[in-house]
Design a protein that fits this description.
By secondary structure, the chain is α+β, with helices and mostly antiparallel strands. It has a single domain (14-124), classed as Nucleotidyltransferase, domain 5. It is 50% helix and 15% strand. Strand 3 (72-74), helix 3 and strand 4 form a beta-alpha-beta unit. Helix 4 (102-115) packs across helix 5 (117-124). The longest helix has 24 residues, at 34-57. It starts with 13 loop residues before the first strand and ends in a 6-residue tail after the last helix. The model has no long low-confidence stretch (mean pLDDT 91).
């Protein structure tokens, strides 16, 4: 978490990782770079990007216009990944913002959905699959 990112950032740190070498069984220290962590995170980050793009493809034009003007707000734990906003901005060309309190925003939004369930029922519950 200390050195991971979704997009190259200036002044990226490295970390020394200590553990047991599985090949020899002896203690070993290696240097892990931010680029190493970014490469390891590439698959889940690409899944997020593809989900955003897929959703944007299905978005009605009037809503897409609002999104282009106002942007997308990232919430939840994924929003805490450094550089995810910059990566999404780079991939979509849209403004990307991070919620002030991304972890609390998910819980608060879920609570509001429960409080306003009847008003939101049509968008919360999808049609049964055929």
């Amino acid at each position: 978490m200390a050195i991971g990112s979704a997009f190259p950032l200036p002044g990226e740190p490295d970390a020394e990782i200590r553990g047991r070498d599985l090949a020899t069984g002896l203690p070993k220290t290696i240097l892990v770079t931010s680029a190493d962590i970014r490469k390891a995170l590439e698959e889940p980050v690409n899944a997020i990007i593809n989900a955003v793009k897929s959703t944007l493809d299905k978005t009605p034009p009037e809503l897409a216009s609002d999104l282009m003007d106002r942007g997308i707000v990232l919430t939840g734990g994924g929003a805490l990944l450094r550089g995810l906003d910059e990566r999404l901005r780079h991939e979509t060309g849209m403004p990307i913002h991070i919620s002030e309190r991304p972890l609390q925003a998910v819980a608060e939004g879920s609570g509001k959905c429960i409080e306003e369930f009847e008003a939101l029922e049509k968008v919360l519950i999808s049609e049964p699959r055929r």
